[in-house]
Design a protein that fits this description.
With about 250 residues, the chain is an alpha/beta fold. It has 7 helices and 7 strands; from the N terminus they run βαβαβαβαβαβααβ. α1 (about 15-25) links the parallel β1 (about 5-10) and β2 (about 30-35). The longest helix is centred in the middle third of the chain and has 28 residues, at about 105-130. It starts with 5 loop residues before the first strand and ends in a 7-residue tail after the last strand.
Length: about 250
């Protein structure tokens, strides 16, 4: 029955951590709404996997900086069950341009994609979470606004967006706590990519891995394991947290 289904909205769901979350949580009691900007093939494959697990799946491709698209996305997420219970803001990208190399347009684009889109979606459906008996909101942050300068790599554009996202996460957690809605942020370390695209070269990856205490990259499913727990009833007393999953990177 639709009333027994849990509605989950996930951005950046076509690959990496987003796809791993879908695969970890897909079941017959889940109604997913999945989005990506342009990776239609990846989104199709993830959707097919979830459907085979019995989940209901709707998907939409578009730009998270476009408010009309966000409105359409929220309406689509409500269509199956009439409410949105859980939201994972996963969409993002890495930009390693240093000061003197990026301009305000690039930093604004980064903030709009990762932080402003999050606040817009929340404003559009905040009452949904309050009505839910399992309200959960999770943002995917990053190590780049914490571990600065590993191997002389810095990501100021991305760090600004992730820092803003973490600030929104904590303040929203406080606001929604009285409604028993938990809001947390996951801060992954260096994580395996699905494809060959990367902001770093092969040599840079080797140098970084040599400095991670666990001596390897995170697997997307390892991040998804914690997210699945935070979405569950078992995590009902955890809110307002920025949780590192970084193989010990934060110890350096």
């Amino acid at each position: 029955m639709k009333s027994l289904m849990k509605s989950i909205l996930i951005t950046g769901a076509a690959s990496g951590i987003g796809a791993a979350i879908v695969k970890k949580t897909a079941s017959k009691n889940i109604s997913f709404t999945l989005t990506t900007k342009s990776n239609k093939q990846g989104l199709r494959l993830v959707s097919e996997y979830a459907k085979k697990k019995g989940a209901s799946v709707s998907s939409l491709c578009g730009d998270l900086t476009n408010k009309k698209f966000l409105e359409d996305l929220v309406n689509l997420a409500r269509k199956e069950t009439g409410n949105i219970d859980q939201f994972i803001a996963n969409a993002g990208y890495a930009n390693k341009q240093k000061f003197g190399e990026f301009d305000n347009d690039e930093i604004n684009q980064s903030i709009q994609t990762m932080a402003t889109s999050f606040s817009t979606i929340i404003n559009l459906c905040i009452e949904d979470f309050k009505r839910s008996n399992n309200g959960r909101i999770i943002t995917i942050s990053s190590f780049v606004n914490k571990n600065i300068g590993l191997n002389d790599n810095i990501f100021p554009v991305t760090a600004a967006a992730k820092g803003a996202l973490e600030g929104l996460t904590k303040t929203l957690a406080f606001q929604l706590a009285k409604h028993h809605v938990t809001v947390n942020s996951i801060s992954p370390g260096y994580t395996q990519k699905d494809g060959s695209h990367s902001a770093l070269s092969s040599l840079e990856w080797d140098q970084i891995i040599s400095k991670i205490p666990i001596s390897r990259l995170a697997k997307p499913e390892e991040v998804a394991n914690l997210i699945a727990f935070l979405l569950s009833k078992k995590a009902s007393y955890i809110t307002g947290q920025i949780i590192n999953i970084d193989g010990g990177l934060s110890l350096i």
